[in-house]
Every structure is written in C-alpha cells, then in structure tokens.
Design a protein that fits this description.
Layout: H1 2-12, E1 47-61, E2 64-80, E3 83-98, E4 102-105, E5 108-117, E6 120-128, E7 133-143, E8 146-160, E9 166-183, E10 187-197, E11 208-217, E12 223-231, E13 242-250, E14 257-258, E15 318-320, E16 324-327, E17 331-332, H2 345-357, E18 361-369, H3 376-396, E19 404-408, H4 421-427, E20 429-437
Parallel strand pairs: 18-19
Antiparallel strand pairs: 1-2, 1-13, 2-3, 3-4, 3-5, 5-6, 6-7, 7-8, 8-9, 9-10, 10-11, 11-12, 12-13, 14-17, 15-16, 16-20, 18-20
Length: 438
C-alpha cells in the first residue's frame, strides 16, 4: 500500500516525480562520467546543453513496470573572483507504466558546482517546487589513461503524500566511477556504482546500481554516451532489473590559445586587435576612419605601420632575446588537438625566417606547455604532440630537422600559479628555447 501511494505521488505532483522510485541523475557536463560528476568546471562563459540522459528502467519497483525519462541539462561556466564555478539546470520528463500509467514532469533542478582546489570540488543542488536539497563533495584523479571519481554527500528530501502532508527524509548518496581512454580524445570505457543510504522514513527503498558504457567524444568537447546496467540489491525499491541510457550533450568551445611568453620581453605586446565597437572592413586592427586603405589589410604582404596600407616596413613578429626566439603573437591550436590553426602560420613562418637568417643557432628545443585543467598524463601527451606539430611545420618550411627538437612539459612549468582563466591562458604556450648557439 505504501508503495502504491508513493507511485501515485510520482504522477500526481511534479514535486515528487522520480524521487523515491528512481534516483538516476545524469552528470552535469562532459567532465563527468555517466551519472557521477567530476570536479572540473566549464571554462569562463563556456556553455553545455543537451539531452543529459534518455533512460529506461525496468521493474524499478513492484508497482512500476517501466519508466522512461528524458532529462534535459544545461550549464554555464563562470569565473568569479578567481574561483571556477558552474551554474546548471536540469528538467526530467517521463512516462511510467505499471499499476498506473502516466506522463509526468519532474522537479526542475538548479545546481552550483565549484572547483575548490585541484582534484576536489563541491556541488549544491535544489529541486523545485519541492525545495529538496543536496550537497555533494567530489574528488577525482587520473593515472595514465584512467581517470576516476568519488561523489558523496547528503540529500534532504521533501515529499508530499496526498492528504498526509509533507514529510522530510534524509539520504546519503554515494557513487564511484572510472573511465579508461580506449582512444584519447575519442572514446572512453566508463563504469559506475552508485546508490544512496536511506533514512528510517524510507524503509524498503535502498537503491544500489551498477552501470557501464561508452562515452564517444564528438566535435570539440561534445559527447555521446551509451550505457546499461542493473540494480544490485534484489527485492528492494529503486533497483531496476535493467537500465539502459543514451545521452548527447553539446559543449561548443573556442579554440585554446597557446601563447608564447618570456619574462625578458614582458614589455613587448602584440599588435592591438580591433575592438568590437568600431568598423574595420579589412580586419587589420586599424579602424576604417583611420585607415587610408580600408579594403586592403595592412599586413596582407607581411608589412605594417600606422596608416593601414601595405608598405616597405616588415612586421616584427619574432624577437631574438638570446636564450629564446619569442613570437609576439600567440600560436593557436584546434581545441584539445595538435592541429595548428591557419592564423598562426604567419607567426611560425617568421620563426622559420629567423632560423634561416641566424645559421649560428644550431639547436632549438620547441617546448609545449599546457594549463592544469585535465589529467596530468593527458596534458603531458597533448603538449608533446603540439610541440611535435610545430617542429613538423618548421621542417616543412625548409628548416633542417637536426636543428630542432620537441619536448612536451604538460602542466609542470606554469608561469602563473593562479587557478584562473587568465592564468590558464598564460600557461598554455609554445616556447622556442635556444639550446646550442655559436
């Protein structure tokens, strides 16, 4: 009888949909797994949205034969006073069959995730209109191609039982997850075990579930995941005989910028970029009102001064400071890839010309550096591949391979220790270190 009332509660009020019968909640973003979250947040003003999960549960309860739920998710990354934050929202929509068959709209969830320190985060959630709240602590790490996480916390749930009024119960959700990169940046094998320890008000409700699947990363950081599993405790409410889930979430992101930096030329700054609030038809950094050649980019032929027209003075894109060749514009790569973006070819051409003009530079180490976001081993591998891509480009421009070597340092040599997006932009860089010079 109590279970029947609980099922009626699910379909009679949005406030209690999916509450005591099914505690399946998808991860908030691509940094997570299937249901468990990672400590890393979206970057500043980065957006995530999509179908967090379309999941089917079979025999979740004696009174519930099948439940199909689509959970919409969205999230926005923000950096507030140097603290990486993420604001998220979820909305489950479902269909249930059993002793009663109904469609329902579940509680809307509002979430705030913060990365406290590296490998540790926290997430607070509230469900509306019930006002149920949850607080999770998140710990994660990575070893080689494997990353793993533990989520645990407390949930205070408000439940309306028809004419019996509002009751509150306390649960302690707990979950562990691991992901193994079968192909870096492309496919992960994911496994999870999750559940909740219920309070005395929820006798008979003891969810404990295992789930496994694949996470396939699409363009940039978007992903598609497929998973299946089942409950681990027989004859207990909240343990499905079978669970199947599919998700597709989009996270459009700008390319990371790997910028050159060296203290010796801190006073040298790149050519100013055009502001968004004035016209610049040829996109050469000089407003049309000051540009004598508004349809002819000043740097079209590699020359630049203040009149906006190509002339006889070459742009100064590389500075030789003795120990390094320092580009004055950033070298850009496709996001999470070792593919050089075309707008950086001119800078690298200038590096190649500097090497041609200085035959006494016998050996240059092309160093790749990343920020601290992501797993250590992943960052190390990405920095090595990017450094190698730069060497390949310079060789294609006629530089002898014997004069170049590449080395990736990952996140081990930050030039700004702060945990902010501004610091991350400084730490993502390519350095041309002169190792042998006559």
């Amino acid at each position: 009888m109590a279970r029947t009332i609980l099922v009626l509660l699910l379909v009679s009020r949005a406030a209690s949909a999916q509450v005591a019968v099914d505690d399946f909640h998808p991860a908030l973003d691509a940094r997570g797994y299937l249901t468990q979250n990672g400590s890393e947040t979206l970057g500043h003003e980065e957006l995530s949205f999509g179908l967090g999960s379309l999941e089917w549960g079979r025999h979740l309860d004696a009174s519930v034969h099948d439940m199909v739920t689509a959970t919409l998710v969205s999230a926005l990354g923000l950096n507030v006073a140097g603290v990486p934050l993420e604001l998220g929202a979820t909305l489950p929509l479902g269909v249930m069959s059993g002793e009663t068959s109904r469609q329902y709209v579940g509680d809307a969830g509002l979430h705030l995730k913060a990365r406290i320190v590296r490998h540790f985060g926290a997430m607070a959630s509230v469900e509306l209109p019930t006002g149920s709240t949850q607080f999770l602590g998140i710990a994660d790490a990575a070893v080689g191609p494997v990353r793993f996480a533990v989520n645990g916390g407390v949930r205070v749930r408000s439940t309306t039982l028809m004419d019996m009024g509002v009751t509150q119960s306390t649960e302690f959700p707990l979950g562990v997850a691991a992901a193994w990169a079968l192909s870096p940046e492309k496919v992960e094998l994911v496994g999870e075990v999750f559940g909740a320890i219920g309070s005395s008000e929820q006798r008979g409700y003891q969810p404990l579930e295992a789930l496994g699947g694949l996470k396939v990363y699409l363009a940039k950081n978007s992903y598609l995941s497929l998973g299946a599993g089942r409950g681990l405790l027989p004859d207990r409410s909240g343990n499905p005989d079978l669970r199947a889930v599919i998700s597709i979430v989009f996270e459009p992101k700008p390319a990371q910028v790997v910028s050159a930096h060296v203290e010796e030329v801190a006073e040298l700054t790149p050519v100013a970029k055009p502001a968004d609030d004035f016209a610049d038809r040829d996109n050469d950094g000089i407003a049309d009102k000051d540009d004598k050649c508004p349809d002819d980019p000043e740097n079209y032929n590699g020359y630049q001064d203040d009149d906006g027209c190509p002339d006889d003075e070459p742009r100064n894109l590389v500075v030789d400071v003795g120990s390094q060749l320092v580009p004055l514009e950033g070298i850009e790569f496709e996001f999470d890839k070792a593919i050089i973006r075309p707008q950086s070819f001119e800078v690298l051409d200038a590096v190649a010309k500097a090497l041609v003009d200085n035959p006494g530079i016998h050996l240059v180490e092309v160093q790749g550096h990343t920020d601290e976001q992501g797993a250590d081993d992943y960052n190390l591998d990405l920095s090595q591949r990017r450094a190698a891509a730069v060497v390949d480009y310079l060789v294609s421009k006629g530089i002898e391979p014997a004069r170049l070597t590449s080395h990736g340092y990952g996140e081990s040599q930050p030039i700004d220790p702060a945990h902010t997006q501004a610091a991350y932009r400084k730490n993502r860089r390519v350095v041309f270190q002169i190792e042998d010079r006559q």
